[in-house]
Amino acid sequence: MVNKWHLFVSRIAFICNIFFIGCLLLRYTHVAFPETVTGLILIMGWIPVSPLLNLICFAATGFRWIKLKKTPAPAWLPIINALFLFTQLIYFLAIYQ
Protein backbone atom coordinates (compact mmCIF):
# COMPACT_ATOMS: atom_id res chain seq x y z
CA MET A 1 0.00 0.00 0.00
CA VAL A 2 2.80 2.42 0.85
CA ASN A 3 4.49 1.72 -2.48
CA LYS A 4 1.36 2.61 -4.43
CA TRP A 5 0.86 5.77 -2.37
CA HIS A 6 4.44 6.91 -2.94
CA LEU A 7 4.27 6.23 -6.67
CA PHE A 8 0.93 8.06 -6.97
CA VAL A 9 2.14 11.15 -5.09
CA SER A 10 5.38 11.21 -7.08
CA ARG A 11 3.48 11.19 -10.35
CA ILE A 12 1.06 13.89 -9.20
CA ALA A 13 4.04 16.00 -8.04
CA PHE A 14 5.61 15.62 -11.49
CA ILE A 15 2.39 16.79 -13.14
CA CYS A 16 2.28 19.77 -10.77
CA ASN A 17 5.88 20.56 -11.70
CA ILE A 18 4.81 20.81 -15.33
CA PHE A 19 2.08 23.21 -14.19
CA PHE A 20 4.79 25.19 -12.34
CA ILE A 21 6.58 25.69 -15.66
CA GLY A 22 3.23 26.86 -17.05
CA CYS A 23 2.95 29.35 -14.17
CA LEU A 24 6.34 30.77 -15.02
CA LEU A 25 5.30 31.11 -18.65
CA LEU A 26 2.11 32.90 -17.61
CA ARG A 27 4.05 35.22 -15.32
CA TYR A 28 6.76 36.29 -17.76
CA THR A 29 5.04 36.07 -21.14
CA HIS A 30 1.69 37.07 -22.53
CA VAL A 31 -0.16 33.88 -23.37
CA ALA A 32 -3.90 34.05 -23.99
CA PHE A 33 -5.52 31.05 -22.32
CA PRO A 34 -9.15 30.81 -21.26
CA GLU A 35 -9.73 31.78 -17.62
CA THR A 36 -10.46 28.22 -16.53
CA VAL A 37 -7.19 26.93 -17.96
CA THR A 38 -5.25 29.81 -16.41
CA GLY A 39 -6.89 29.15 -13.05
CA LEU A 40 -6.04 25.45 -13.20
CA ILE A 41 -2.42 26.18 -14.09
CA LEU A 42 -2.10 28.68 -11.25
CA ILE A 43 -3.70 26.42 -8.64
CA MET A 44 -1.73 23.30 -9.54
CA GLY A 45 1.61 24.95 -10.22
CA TRP A 46 1.92 27.74 -7.71
CA ILE A 47 1.81 27.78 -3.93
CA PRO A 48 0.79 25.54 -2.14
CA VAL A 49 0.22 22.48 -4.33
CA SER A 50 3.42 21.95 -6.31
CA PRO A 51 6.03 22.84 -3.65
CA LEU A 52 4.10 20.99 -0.95
CA LEU A 53 3.85 17.79 -2.99
CA ASN A 54 7.51 18.04 -3.92
CA LEU A 55 8.43 18.39 -0.26
CA ILE A 56 6.31 15.34 0.65
CA CYS A 57 7.87 13.28 -2.16
CA PHE A 58 11.38 14.39 -1.22
CA ALA A 59 10.83 13.45 2.43
CA ALA A 60 9.23 10.10 1.57
CA THR A 61 12.03 9.23 -0.85
CA GLY A 62 14.62 10.26 1.71
CA PHE A 63 13.05 8.05 4.37
CA ARG A 64 12.93 5.13 1.96
CA TRP A 65 16.61 5.62 1.07
CA ILE A 66 17.54 5.81 4.77
CA LYS A 67 15.74 2.51 5.37
CA LEU A 68 17.51 1.10 2.26
CA LYS A 69 14.21 0.31 0.58
CA LYS A 70 13.76 0.60 -3.14
CA THR A 71 11.44 3.37 -4.30
CA PRO A 72 8.54 2.20 -6.46
CA ALA A 73 8.94 5.14 -8.82
CA PRO A 74 11.26 5.08 -11.82
CA ALA A 75 14.77 6.26 -10.96
CA TRP A 76 14.44 9.54 -12.85
CA LEU A 77 11.21 10.65 -11.13
CA PRO A 78 12.53 11.38 -7.60
CA ILE A 79 15.56 13.12 -9.09
CA ILE A 80 13.43 15.39 -11.30
CA ASN A 81 11.04 16.12 -8.41
CA ALA A 82 13.99 17.00 -6.14
CA LEU A 83 15.44 19.32 -8.80
CA PHE A 84 12.09 21.05 -9.14
CA LEU A 85 11.81 21.36 -5.34
CA PHE A 86 15.17 23.10 -5.07
CA THR A 87 14.35 25.29 -8.08
CA GLN A 88 11.04 26.29 -6.50
CA LEU A 89 12.65 27.03 -3.14
CA ILE A 90 15.26 29.27 -4.75
CA TYR A 91 12.65 30.96 -6.94
CA PHE A 92 10.19 31.63 -4.10
CA LEU A 93 12.93 32.84 -1.77
CA ALA A 94 14.13 35.24 -4.47
CA ILE A 95 10.63 36.56 -5.17
CA TYR A 96 9.31 36.90 -1.62
CA GLN A 97 12.30 38.41 0.14
From TrEMBL:
Membrane-spanning intervals of the chain: 12-33, 39-63, 75-96
Keyword Membrane appears in the UniProt entry: yes
Superkingdom of the source species: Bacteria
Keywords (A to Z) from UniProt: Membrane, Transmembrane, Transmembrane helix
Protein name, UniProt field: Uncharacterized protein
Organism in which the protein naturally occurs: Filimonas effusa
